[in-house]
């Protein structure tokens, strides 16, 4: 089940957040439609970057959680 959950802005770049399955999300850079990786909600948060800085992907995931683009709202411990 793929469902676009919205967009987040991190470090001046916009990313599309897509839910792939329960607790698993994909981040896509809008600028060039590049899939930058996936993240799985925890705790702890798990990121799998694809040719992309894992720390920046972690910030994208954090922004998605904080802006309610995921179903894991409000649990930012260990992110």
**Major sheet summary line:** 5 strands, antiparallel
Radius of gyration: 11 Å
For the record, give the distance between the C-alpha atoms at the N and C termini, rounded to a whole number: 25 Å
The percentage helix is 10-25%
Oligomer: single chain
Structural class: alpha+beta
Q: Summarize model confidence as the mean pLDDT.
A: 89
Number of strands: 5
In DSSP terms, counting alpha (H) and pi (I) runs of 4 or more, how many helices? 1
Task: State the main characteristics.
79 residues; alpha+beta; 5-stranded antiparallel sheet
Describe this structure in words.
A hairpin with a 2-residue loop joins strand 2 (13-21) and strand 3 (24-29). 16% of the residues lie in helices and 43% in strands. It is built from one helix and five strands. It has a five-stranded antiparallel sheet with strand order 1-2-3-4-5. The model has no long low-confidence stretch (mean pLDDT 89). With 79 residues, the protein is α+β, with helices and mostly antiparallel strands. It has one helix at residues 54-66, and strands at residues 3-10, 13-21, 24-29, 34-40, 46-49. The protein has one domain (3-66).
Offer a quick outline of the entry.
The chain has one helix and five strands; from the N terminus they run E-E-E-E-E-H.
Question: What topology emerges from the helices and strands here?
Answer:
Blueprint: E1 3-10, E2 13-21, E3 24-29, E4 34-40, E5 46-49, H1 54-66
Antiparallel strand pairs: 1-2, 2-3, 3-4, 4-5
